[in-house]
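User: quick one - fold this with adenosine-5'-diphosphate bound?
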Amino acid sequence: MSKNKSSEAVKVVVRCRPLSRKEESTGPAGGIVQMDLRLGQVILRNPRAPPSEPQKTFTFDAVYDSSSKQRDLYDESVRPLIDSVLAGFNGTIFAYGQTGTGKTYTMQGLWLDPEKQGVIPNAFDHIFTHISRSQSDKQYLVRASYLEIYLEEIRDLLDPNHGNTRGLELRESPETGVYVQDLTSCVCKSIKEIEEVMNVGNQARAVGATDMNEHSSRSHALFLITVECSQPGPDGRKHIRVGRLNLVDLAGSERQAKTGVQGDRLKEAAKINLSLSALGNVISALADGRSSHVPYRDSKLTRLLQDSLGGNAKTVMVATVGPAPQHYDETLTTLRYANRAKNIQNQPRVNEDPKDALLREFQKEIARLRAQLNHRRFRSKQKKEQVDGEAWERDGDEEGEELEEEEVEKEAEEFVKLEEQRLEKENEAIREDQFLLAEEKQKLLGENEKMMGDLRKRQEATEQLTARYKAMESKLLVGGKNIIDHTNEQQKMLEMKRQEIAEQTRREREMQQQMLVQDEEAVELRETFTSLQQEVEAKTKKLKKLYAKLQCTKAEIKDVNDEHVRSRQELEQTQNELTRELKFKYLIIENFIPPEEKNKIMNRLMFDPDEDEWKFKPLVPEESKSSQMKKRPLSAVGYKRPISQYARVAMAKGTHPRYRAENIKLLELDMTPPNTSALTDGEQNQSPTLNNSPSNDKGICKSRSWYQSQKSITSSSSNNSLLFI
Ligand code: ADP
Ligand code: MG
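Assistant: Sure. Structure tokens for the protein plus adenosine-5'-diphosphate:
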């Protein structure tokens, strides 16, 4: 399976957005971020520090300043990654930074302006252009999924019911690594279709959020594209390569203010940056190289990106920063974070012939449908030739032979038409035949009618099969076919030239960076001193340089310490709030829930690590539930509870109330009319039913019947009228 096991570092690029109008008008003048594009360096000035303090310098694979174009970033830093995905590698691009620094702008950009389209639309264009230009022996299948992680729940943005259902689960398989179970994935045949998928997802994201900005700065969005490509290998068999591309727009990395939050909001606050801090921990553990445990399992995001960080993938991280002085701390944190990520080593390899390739299934299904169709057509053709009186001389195995599709379809249609005409003629002849009896005529006509019906049914089935076959086949994209109209040669050349230039700039920068390092090392070796004075001068210079470096490192250590203290304080604050909440719950439990009830509940509780939740064990164990609950004891069949033989006999005989089992009331209809006598009737008429009741003497209350004959209704109504007047 593996072709290339060499490891490669995560590529980290930094992008700085221009000062916004608001920042220009309200904040102090000038940005704090300077960039050396040639060397790939970011120089950060601390607005609060005295001018003598040295500025902080970070070096990255590439840097893009506020005047950079979307296209520059794509061609130089993203294009090689997408090419790798098309060759069967896993690829990930993620944008990291404070809210409002341009993560979404970099990933999506402004869709309507081709100049300002971000990484995602450019990647769509790239993928489908590549497919249209590849050789015709290649077949492609492109799928897309879109999900977001909000408050540690995975939501499928392409599922219309995602708002009502619970979050999706993560699963792991040795073949594909970590994946999301039941995630919708759409087969896309063109740029338009994949853009549609993106739009549907974006709308779902917007609808799901009460406050869009707030929501999007707290949720991570992942757009996943799988490109499967099948190509005949030197052994003549078709080989499939699967490239998976994750395009990730992370939540804003700034610290969420956590003051005065309680209950659900507290839970939310605790979860908001869980994924991000887990991501930071994973990056630290990987960059450190010494820690044996990488805490991927701490959050959904890190589990999903497990392969992208230190695994089988090529990864590009775009760290976005803003130039405004008021965000100095955040910018510094982002740059440090990005600097650490540079040290992560991945082991990308081509995913060749994985078992779960959907393309293989599609190919099999298409081959099956095609065989079925050919078989049908072959049969029709055979019949036609028999009808035409031609001898069928060819071999039977030729039925699998690939016939010219359209021709065969036409032939089959013609055959059906001819056959219909023939049957119609036969019908005519039968009707006009005077030697046949009416009964025989009817029979022959009926037979013909049946044949006609069969023919139509067969034709319909073939049509359905053809439609299914065509629909299946249309999902596969074949190289060499023009699915995009702008694939003329000139443009191709232009793009290639642009790529070459981008590649050259990249190499130049790498060389410059290497030269800088080597220069420092070589200075020592080259030094030969002619005089003592010269030696002193040179060494003083060097001392100064080293002293400045020492100061920088000291400042760095202080900064890191400060940051740790700050984050520790925040964690302590969260912990205090959680402890308070916990104590409150304990108080309620201790004072309002009886101890035996509490014990019962405690005994039934268990923790489900998959769903990260406490759950109740079922009251009756699953396996015994079915056998235990279904049967009633023999003595209780037909009764609510077991009953003795004596009681049953007594009950059958009837009268004694003790043996009336459950039903101690007599429910037979009592035809005596209700007491509706007038008040004037006096006391002697009170409750006649009770007095006259035959069961009264037995001490049983007999249910009254309100059935009344026609006669008694009239009498009672007249009585009633007497009553109410
Ligand atoms: P985030 O997703 O990081 O919260 P956005 O991408 O929404 O930030 O960017 C915030 C604003 O800044 C948007 O109005 C966007 O148009 C603008 N912006 C960001 N980056 C750039 C850039 N490189 N050039 C021009 N405008 C930018
Ligand atoms: Mg955003």
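One thing worth noting: Residues 17-18, 97, 99-105, 217, 252, 320 surround adenosine-5'-diphosphate (ligand 1) (CB under 6 Å).
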